[in-house]
Amino acid sequence: MEKWRATSNLRRSLKSILNRQLSSVSEFRYLNEKRSCQSSFNLIRDCKSLGQVNAIQHRCFSSASTLVQRNPSFSTLNSDDISYFKGLLGEKSVIQDEDRLETVNTDWMHKYKGSSKLLLLPRSTEEVAQILRYCNSRCLAVVPQGGNTGLVGGSVPVFDEVIVNVSSMKNIISFDKVSGILVCEAGCILENLISFLDNQGFIMPLDLGAKGSCQIGGNVSTNAGGLRLVRYGSLHENVLGLEAVLANGDVLDMLGTLRKDNTGYDLKHLFIGSEGSLGIVTKVSILTPPKLSSVNIAFLACNDYSSCQKLLMEAKRKLGEILSAFEFLDTEAMNLVLHQFDGVRNPLPASMHNFYILIETTGSDESYNRANNSKEDQRNTNKANDGGRRIKLDGCKLHVLAREQECRSCGWLVRTMRREFGHWILRFHQR
Amino acid sequence: MEKWRATSNLRRSLKSILNRQLSSVSEFRYLNEKRSCQSSFNLIRDCKSLGQVNAIQHRCFSSASTLVQRNPSFSTLNSDDISYFKGLLGEKSVIQDEDRLETVNTDWMHKYKGSSKLLLLPRSTEEVAQILRYCNSRCLAVVPQGGNTGLVGGSVPVFDEVIVNVSSMKNIISFDKVSGILVCEAGCILENLISFLDNQGFIMPLDLGAKGSCQIGGNVSTNAGGLRLVRYGSLHENVLGLEAVLANGDVLDMLGTLRKDNTGYDLKHLFIGSEGSLGIVTKVSILTPPKLSSVNIAFLACNDYSSCQKLLMEAKRKLGEILSAFEFLDTEAMNLVLHQFDGVRNPLPASMHNFYILIETTGSDESYNRANNSKEDQRNTNKANDGGRRIKLDGCKLHVLAREQECRSCGWLVRTMRREFGHWILRFHQR
């Protein structure tokens, strides 16, 4: 019944949003243009600490360079607005302090900078709803913000939007050990959820470098992927339900905990990855897999791209159900890492390889799940016989890293940055 | 770019649909009311061949019994319409023959019966688009139909809707062995896709009893789950892209093949499970997992429900990555099966148990993946030591079936029906 109500609410709201032509005038900024720049920004991020890129960048639609103009139909904040918010949230949750505004006006990479004069910190769905209802009636622009760790500027204002930051909504609502379903508020920091689940014998289906700061609501709104996507799929798979507040303050309760609920339209998927442009996610229910005890990593080099493809096919087939990550680097990316960080070295022989692959396996049986790949080349394609599962490859030149210490110095570096290293349990079969 | 176009197309179409108030006047009937009756229909289905239920039933909203009335604003077919369709599709694809119409007007369980006078068999997306564009302009009601194997009457007309059956669209468009991504037309029969993939060393992420007749477009439109859901997740996870034709004839090209594409709104999810009410799915791209060589099944009985829950938790934890199915039956369901089918017997001791569990494992290593559960009860909770992985349970009474022949006589019966049996490769560790 709740769901049907949600459907009809959304239908009404979509209609009203569409009628107001969301792409030109909207309470939520339409952020897709930023995301289309993501791939080039990643490279810029990698170079940042080399001092190559420091200037605040202007946002643009992909390659076009037209500046976004502030829509004059939006109002500007006045003292009545501030009074209303203080009455609603209390003095402490209405932030006008310049230093704190500086932080939330700037993205993690210091590439974008907004000029918001107001940060609101609601503690409940009802407060979010009332904020949005008020802003809607006053035609005040709003930008939803979580951990503000995004790389494409989606969580900071473009102009003077009111920032609604949900970081005060950080309660774990329930966890069912039988089904592995966690229900929590949107402001929960990913790492806190990971720790909580670890104590229960479960893991989060997503893990990424920003986990110490990013929030689950933001993860859902940006459809964050991370290191475990190859094994556990995207958030479209793992998020079972959502609660979200629409721009007009309507609350959509789609917070189901049934893994296969196909009654009606599955509207929650619209919110996953929509970057807050359809509403602010306030609660999430998520399916979490059990923690498996055995994690292993291997690092390999290939001379050509087709060998990498063959390796992926073989890894999927031979490691099958225990394959939990398959990460790809080319020489350029590898060199960047080697030059960028002290004490990092290529664990493979000095000769230059064109491509590198990091394979991780995770399984429930330690004696068995060894990401143990035999050293093979075109002249020797037989499986080695010293135990463990091996990938057999015809026509590929593989170099195998099988020492923990060596792997620790390079594995996951590119994706998780160094501070995340402790997370990976590296155990290797001695060859 | 294609995706952006699709988004703006859908936005326009949604707007036009919403403006016309889809719930009261729409080219596609709003089928959700039927699905809400699904659980009760399943039981009726089980009893059907006992002759208990034969009458054609009236559709209703859940428990309410209001009859749906034909909306008088829809037109009725005339000879000009028939001429148009014959000109568009050719004589052979415009069916008015009464015998053939009888079949497509009736659902698989012979519970619902429409009175359509016209069956159209388009062979391409363009033909589907032209049909819908024409029907929209003439205000003719349409019902999309695939294999017509649904149990809730979603694929047959309520009144005199034009039936658009996509079974002639059955081409496999591409298959990428590296990524495991299959792209095909919506009319492909599931079993044909399974066979095709089997030859390539892959499997479909979904498998269900109706696979010999059901079509992938219908599977997607109904968000069919089936036997592999616990392992491979729902179609929201596995469907990477869709092509669909909206009611006004617009073609939405969302046929991506990227596993993690989070640019823009992920509109395809709206179509998964929407039962054709938003548009007719014409092409599907789907991620297929590699075929793993070792499949095992165990059949167990539990005395109480909490033991079943504990068993699920232990199965997820101990069998972890190789667990591929966990099916639950209560005594009533078991008795129904035993009485319904000749030659089926309970493989477990004669004493009555309250609950039965069927566990299937699928893995890449035959010597290892044994769904081998030790015979344990409250007095003996130690793991047995004769090899294979075992589930250890405290406080649960388990009876273990470990003989292929015995299992063959009951496994999966309730969900897949007898003709599907050959599919399951049963191999057991001899105890």
Radius of gyration of chain A: 24 Å
Tally of alpha and pi helices of chain A: 15
- The topology string of helices and strands of chain A comes to HHHHEHEHEEEEHHHHEEHEEHEHEEHH
Low-confidence stretches of chain A: 1-7, 16-64, 367-431
Q: Your description of this structure?
A:
Two copies of one chain form a homodimer. With 431 residues, chain A is of the alpha+beta class. Chain A folds into three domains: 26-165, Uridine Diphospho-n-acetylenolpyruvylglucosamine Reductase, domain 2, CATH 3.30.43.10; 172-287, Uridine Diphospho-n-acetylenolpyruvylglucosamine Reductase, domain 3 (2-Layer Sandwich), CATH 3.30.465; 294-423, Alpha-Beta Plaits (2-Layer Sandwich). Helix content of chain A is 30%, strand content 17%. The first copy, chain A, contains 15 helices and 13 strands. In chain A, a hairpin with a 4-residue loop joins strand 7 (239-246) and strand 8 (251-254). The first copy, chain A, is globular, with a radius of gyration of 24 Å. The model of chain A is unreliable at 1-7, 16-64 and 367-431 (pLDDT under 50).
List descriptors.
alpha+beta, FAD (chains A, B), Uridine Diphospho-n-acetylenolpyruvylglucosamine Reductase, domain 2, Alpha-Beta Plaits, flavoprotein (chains A, B), homodimer, FAD-bd_PCMH_sub2 (chains A, B), 13 strands, 431 residues, disordered N terminus, FAD-bd_PCMH_sub1 (chains A, B), 4-stranded mixed beta sheet, 3 domains, Uridine Diphospho-n-acetylenolpyruvylglucosamine Reductase, domain 3, FAD-bd_oxidored_4_C (chains A, B), 15 helices
